Amino acid sequence: MSANPLLEDLSLPQFDRIAVPDIEPTVDRLLAEIRQTTDQLLANEDPSWERTLRPIEDLDDRLNRAWSPVSHLHNVADNEALRAAYNACLPRLTAYATEKYQNEALYQTCRRVRDGSEYARIGTAERKIVDNALRDFRLSGIELALNERQRFKQVKQELSRLQTKFEENLLDATHAWKKLITDASALTGLPETAQALARHTAERESKDGWMLTLEFPSYRPVMAYCANAALREELYTAYVTRASEQGPHAGRWDNSAVMDEILRLRAELAQLLGFKSFVEYSLATKMAKSPQQVLDFLGDLVRRAKPVAERELEELRAFAAQRHGVNTLQAWDIAYYSERLREEKYAISQEELRPYFPVPQVLHGLFAVAHRLYGVRVAARENTDVWHPDVRFFSITDERGELRALFYLDLYARPHKRGGAWMDECVSRRCRPDGTVQTPVAYLNCNFTPPVGADPVLLTHDEVLTLFHEFGHGLHHMLTTVDRPSVAGINGVAWDAVELPSQIMENWCWEQEALNLLGRHFRTGAALEPSLFARLRAARNFQSGMQMVRQLEFALFDIRLHMEHNPAAGRTVQAVIHDVRREVAVLQPPDFNRFQHGFAHIFAGGYAASYYSYKWAEVLSADAYSKFEECGILDAATGREFLQCILEPGGSRDAMDLFISFRGREPNVGALLRHSGIT
Ligand SMILES: [Zn+2]
Questions:
Q1: For residue 13, which of 336, 387, 264, 316 has the smallest C-alpha distance?
Q2: What is the distance, to the nearest Å, from the Cα of residue 340 to the centroid of all Cα atoms in its chain?
Q3: Ligand 1 center to residue 424 CA distance, Å?
């Protein structure tokens, strides 16, 4: 046994043996070895999948297996030394990933494999890996002439600088505004948790009273609960003018020029690569095939959702007028009166449901649903090395009793663990050179309130949804039957399709039949009463039309902006958002609203020309789930079809082909609209 657990070929990480001082030198050594071996493999006169590309893929898997536990510990059990080691390694790993797609010899090898006779003989997964690689090489500019490649690099660097600048302006503008309240009556209606946060913020600045800020946990409760309309107006105005030429800090951190420059450079980048627009460039890696397809998709949803949103707004207006004597609803009144209406209509709180969702029962129900659908059995395994006593470890075996996967379940919040819920890969499924299969392993992480005393932890219904969602990602990773890591499970799956297996799992949390398995009162064992269940279902679709048109407004603005932006011809950012709102929105915001100056999703990062993905994935999961509604929500045959058509092939085939193989046709929006109460 070697002294370094990161380099051993073990089926599971040895968390307790990882020595932080070893991390950096190990990663360096590994990267050097991988670079050297890659060069040797690429020097082969007669390259092939078997002799060249497959061994290179194995090298990447080795790197991933070494890095995964380090990156995971950084996420869930951080400390200063570990963070320093992690931060030292990260740029080196990023550099390695970037240089891969600048590697001319690797590119030529991929081309020779694709054009050679071996290509027809290798499997579907192997062909997909070669095709994906050639696509990514092209998107990295490797096919450009030398001077163009130079420009491509400059544009990329400039874009990354400007996107960071956008985010910094937004952060600075957000932090610059605050308001001290010294009279408690100004905060009437604000929940105790939000008041405590405001008191705490004031204390931190050695002030008496309540400090309100534009951070979401402070902003959102004021808008939804504070009876004081003047205060809501003041916060709203500051919030929607952040980083713009409007509002209390007009011009201080103005993103206007940054946005124009980002859009101009993105268009140039796309053009260099031969795309008509940045939208086409973005869609090159997506399930959606063309800008028109996305526009039609969003337009269709707008047509169906807008009349419903208009009716909901009318209801809200009537409610505000009749019950509160407010005859004109301003932008800063919408959230407030919506909350009042919600309380009156449904009278349901997350707290009321908690006693029905003790963790052991929820896990029992979750695993029972997976068993009914996919035939798998989930069983706890003791005595596995974990990073915290609360972490549990499970195995998944299939109908033939074969071990398919293993996973760690880390449910509770604690210091030094990052927030939110997520699934991460620990080990990917892979066929080793000796023919044996490397069992996939997943990390499932949530941030639920930790156990206190002897009572089981009780979850809210929202938390149950979160757990099902992440477990869905986990099943995608773990139940794959693809033997090549680059396209096994979630790997290689298009961005706008990867949420299908996770979102579909949420549906079972809204069904009485499934809730009977996972929702039982922790003291009495009673199932959810029908009246409580009915209220839960009804509240699910409160203002779903208004919410949907708002999301559609963002998505259409994102796509159209990346196609139409041309300030010289009058197509400014403001002009595009104005046009989109006229078409889509049921509520026109005030003229000073500069929402776009804070739209970090598309200007600072990953969702540029991709914001539609949220709705796209919802359509896929709702439409796929509707097959269960037709055949029985726990129907084993339909479950096995989903397993074989979607989960097992993972990223080895085109997402649309997989969807069609399951559903028998292309996705349509009907089921999502029906589930949202919009028909
Ligand atoms: Zn997800």
A1: 387
A2: 30
A3: 11
Contact assessment for residue 5 and residue 70, using Cβ atoms and an 8 Å cutoff: no
Q: DSSP alpha helices (H): ranges in 273-290?
A: 278-283
Centre a 10 Å sphere on the Cβ of residue 647 and count the other Cβ atoms it contains: 24
Burial 232-245 (b: 16+ CB within 10 A, else e): bebbbbbbbbbbbe
The residues placing their C-beta within 5 Å of ligand 1, an ion, are: 499, 502
The residue from 57, 425, 470, 499 that is catalytic is 470
Query: CB–CB of 443/428 below 8 Å?
Result: no
Residue type, 136: D
CB contact at 8 A, 73 and 14: no
Residue 365's contacts (CB-CB under 8 Å, 6 or more residues apart) are 514, 515, 517, 518, 519
Q: How many CB atoms lie within 10 A of CB 40?
A: 10
- Taking alpha carbons only, the member of 592, 600, 565 closest to residue 580 is 565
Q: What confidence category does residue 2 fall into, taking pLDDT thresholds of 50, 70 and 90?
A: low
Residue 9: is its pLDDT beyond 80?
A: no
List pLDDT tens digits, range 171-224: 999 999 999 999 999 999 998 888 999 999 999 999 999 999 998 889 999 999
Is 470 an active-site residue? yes
pTM, full prediction: 0.92
**What's the pLDDT score for residue 1?**
41
Distance (angstroms) between ligand 1 centre and the Cα of 650 equals: 15
Bridge-based pairing of strands 392-397 and 430-431 is unpaired
- Compute how many other C-beta atoms are within 10 angstroms of the C-beta atom of residue 186: 17
Residues 613 and 609: their CA atoms lie apart, in Å, by: 9
pLDDT one-digit tens code per residue, 238-293: 999 999 999 999 999 999 999 999 999 999 999 999 999 999 999 999 999 999 99
